[in-house]
Amino acid sequence: MKPNIVICLPARYQSTRLPGKPLLEIAGKPLIIWALESAAKINAKQMIVATDDERIKKLVEVSGYQAIMTSHNHHSGTDRIAEVANMMEWSDDTIVVNYQGDEPMTPKVNIEQLIAALRDNPQASIATLYQAINNYQDLINPNNVKLVSDESDYALYFSRSAIPHSRKHFPLQQLDQNINYKHHIGLYAYRASFLKSFSQLKPTKLEDTESLEQLRAMSHGFRIIAKCAKQTMPHGIDTKEDIIRFEKLLSIQT
């Protein structure tokens, strides 16, 4: 019997670069609604917005979707979704998709790939995706999270540093063409059983150092399966320039 699939969109009000980002009107529609309409294309049993703000909750509900209030004190989106998993009492084998509320152009095929990766790898507690890094500047950019994995596609480490380090090519500021450099995409699918355990774990030194929540899971022995995304991920909405880019894409599609 296949596990149930649920989608959770963490949506906090505060954002350093775009305060109140989920509520921002883009082409006549709030960003969180764009994301919900995109996520609704996935065949899921349930879809919930997890927020810390009553304005977001009200907007989501008025638009016909489900929202739940969560704590203001979460360290990460995974923490917020873990709170929802405990409240909803999902069965342990339920697959919970963390759908980013600021990435409304996420390809459906990538989400389906994410779900399949977790379903087909019973040793994994989390599934995630990556895409290739093809230039040196992207590799050394700390805003691009890098990933190294083993021969079975299980993650070994995530870092904001350029990994793996090539002693031969890095002094020349160029990529080692023999290495498949991986840019981690912040999409996750979790088993509900993992989320219930994660909610009891305090942030670790590695997580705090790199500011990467997945390192808390790895530090406690949870395994992450990582697959190369079938489609290139569009840029998320983090700046005013991103909004302009998104509006241009919408105009092309219509």
Model description:
With 254 residues, this protein is α/β, with parallel strands linked by helices. The chain has one domain: Spore Coat Polysaccharide Biosynthesis Protein SpsA, Chain A (Alpha-Beta Complex). Helix content is 31%, strand content 22%. The strands form 2 sheets. Strands 1, 4, 5, 6, 7, 8, 9, 10 and 11 form a 9-stranded mixed beta sheet that branches. A two-stranded antiparallel sheet has the order 2-3. Helix 2 links the parallel strand 4 and strand 5. Helix 3 packs across helix 6. The model has no long low-confidence stretch (mean pLDDT 93).
Q: Give the terminus-to-terminus CA distance.
A: 40 Å
What Rg, in angstroms, do the CA atoms define?
18 Å
Number of domains: 1
What is the CATH architecture descriptor? Alpha-Beta Complex
Count of alpha and pi helical runs? 9
The CATH topology name reads Spore Coat Polysaccharide Biosynthesis Protein SpsA, Chain A
Provide a concise account of the structure shown.
This protein has 254 residues and is an alpha/beta fold. It has helices at 31-39, 54-62, 77-88, 108-119, 136-140, 192-198, 205-210, 214-219, 240-253, and strands spanning 5-11, 25-26, 29-30, 46-51, 66-69, 95-98, 126-132, 146-149, 155-159, 182-191, 224-228. It has nine helices and eleven strands.
